[in-house]
Request: fold
Amino acid sequence: MSAPTTPLAVVYDAPAVPSQGYGLYAAATLLSSGAAPRELLAGIDLYPFNCDTGVGSYAPELCDETPPEKTPGARPEPLHFDPLVVWAAAECAPDQTEDEELARARQIRTLHEPLIVESAFAAELLTAAGAPAAATSLMDAIGQLEVFLGEQGYAGYIHASRKWAVEAGFLNAAAGSAVLRTKLGNTWVFGGGYDSALGDTLVATGPLTVWRSDPFEHVVTTGSHVTPAYNNTVYALSERVITVGYECAVHAVTIS
Reply:
């Protein structure tokens, strides 16, 4: 009589899922910078196009002896934005190929890259905005930011923790499908990585641009032996250089 055998469990590889959306990547203009050159690692110098100050008005009095002086618009200085390198690693398994492990690392980076970038970018926004104004409610905060963006002359972006999305929807102040907008057409950026940095603070910015290099991927072996099997760990690594920039002024409001 043969000995009973233990049945083997069914092996199921979970499918890759897309990122959730509604964050920085969904709202900004995404630009591909190709391979990761040395210049990209030095950051981006953004020359604003929508922030010149040479604008005003005067009364059309034909015989006005003291017409107002028109001063040339001061061109804003370029804004510098430093890059961020996001990486993800996946440990290799004996029964999988290097391509399979690289696909695993690529998927992990794809899911977490927007969150890491949003968290770092939110901290930069708070520094650039300076001391935030005070608001008594989300409705008050939205109103202040809509006024600020209206004074700039363009439709802008309101960056906020996702915890405010429900209340914004309840107030009928966030509508849309893939991209949510306010009643006046400003774009909501509910970043999944914003809460740890922004919390109860909302920040308005001008047009957004995200530069992304092509992913650079390779298999890494720890240790110095010429035979990979004799070293400790082999893992797949997927990396990317990302820089986020915006035009013009920044304004922050904190809800008390």
